[in-house]
Specification:
Helices cover 44% and strands 10% of the residues. The chain has helices spanning 29-41, 60-69, 88-97, 111-118, 123-136, 155-165, 193-210, 234-237, 246-256, 277-283, 294-312, 314-323, 325-337, 339-344, 363-370, and strands spanning 2-6, 46-50, 75-80, 101-104, 140-143, 146-147, 171-173, 175-176, 214-215, 257-258, 275-276. Helix 3 (88-97) links the parallel strand 3 (75-80) and strand 4 (101-104).
Length: 371
């Protein structure tokens, strides 16, 4: 189970598409400890610390240290723009406090595009240096480009830049702009998903070829526009409404996402959360199409088979994990997420994105978790 705690609303950037606009005072250290302890008692295993920009909180290292001391979380992740991580000494302090991973908002490999989106000149250079420091110090690094009309044409080049200049990044989360918050002042940022689709596919294909794990998250495209990479979508594996915050997750889906009339006949209707309601208001639902092909039937059948095998024949399940190329990629990505869990228990394996799927020591544990 996973959960997010937001410790500040303040930020050192002014992203045009930011939707965290609700103002609140920084969470005190004592209050943060109370909330984190409650999450641990509730069985949360993967903790994310977010904001605003959490690195602006004066007690961040103490908050991380407290969470780590509970020995309840398999992973502690910081959601950040990585600008403050350009200070290597500061990153070292966070790592020594118990930080395992960073989820970095990095929206373009082009400085002028990135700075134009963050509305802060020079922010690109600090973020890139912060990513490199995080990689150098052994943190798990996921990049989260928010796809919009200013950057989608360059998605394939973005991935090539990551592969060549930020080698070692563990995964990419392809988010799509949410038409809320500051976006209302920049409506031209919201591109049509169908326009994005071919450029995203080229980027996804490159990731798949180079064995760079990637995800289509809750904030990504609906499954019918995922370019046949449905199993790389968090919604395919587990709907956000089934997360650790189940009731809150269901309300979030109901309040913020919707589906078109054509979705009714889709075989993946129960797995897909659709599009942002505000996106439908802007572009409508003409891009959405029901998925009814034999290939989709096969995906669902394979998933069901894997679940059934988990109930009574673990040896066969392990064989599926090693033989199925797509499932291997999912297992690989899951293992990267779980690296702190393995390291703390004496496992050792190469997590570089050029290593391929080399997880013989860990794959059995991962498959058990996935099942």
């Amino acid at each position: 189970m996973d959960a997010i705690i937001r410790i500040t609303q303040r930020c050192n950037q002014r992203c045009k598409f930011c939707n965290v606009v609700k103002e609140f005072e920084d969470v005190s250290l004592d209050d943060a400890k109370i909330r984190i302890r409650k999450l641990a008692e509730d069985g949360v295993q993967f903790l994310s610390i977010s904001g605003g920009e959490p690195t602006l909180h004066k007690d961040l290292s103490e908050i991380i240290s407290f969470a780590s001391s509970l020995d309840s979380f398999k992973s502690i992740t910081l959601q950040t723009n990585a600008a403050m991580l350009s200070n290597e000494v500061y990153v070292e302090r966070l790592v020594s406090s118990g930080l395992d991973a960073v989820f970095v908002a990095f929206h373009s490999h082009l400085p002028e595009v990135s700075d134009g989106l963050t509305l802060l000149n020079g922010s690109w250079g600090k973020t890139v240096l912060g990513i490199k420091n995080a990689l150098r110090l052994g943190l798990i690094v996921t990049l989260n480009p928010v796809i919009n009309s200013f950057n989608y044409l360059e998605l394939p080049s973005y991935i090539r830049f990551v592969d060549e200049e930020l080698n070692g990044v563990n995964s990419i989360s392809f988010s799509f702009i949410q038409p809320l918050g500051r976006v209302e002042d920049y409506p031209g940022l919201v591109s049509k998903m169908s326009d994005v689709q071919p450029y995203l596919k080229e980027a996804q294909d490159y990731c798949y070829e180079k064995k760079i794990p990637f995800f289509n998250p809750y904030c990504g495209l609906p499954l019918c526009l995922s370019n046949r990479y449905e199993v790389f979508s968090t919604e395919f594996a587990q709907s956000v409404s089934d997360s650790s915050e189940e009731e809150a997750g269901k309300r979030r889906v109901e309040d913020m996402k919707t589906k078109g009339d054509s979705c009714e006949g889709c075989l993946l209707f129960g797995k897909c959360n659709g599009v942002w309601k505000s996106y439908g208001d802007i572009h409508g639902f003409g891009e959405l199409r029901p998925m009814v092909s034999e290939r989709v039937v096969g995906l669902l059948a394979r998933e069901e088979l894997r679940r059934k095998e988990a109930e009574g024949n673990e040896e066969r399940l392990q064989m599926l994990g090693r033989e199925d190329v797509v499932l291997k990629s999912v297992v690989y990505a899951e293992a990267l997420t779980m690296r702190p869990f393995f390291v703390k228990r004496g496992f050792s394996f190469d997590v570089g994105n050029s290593s391929g799927v080399q997880l013989d020591d860990c794959v059995d544990v991962v498959i058990k978790k996935l099942s």
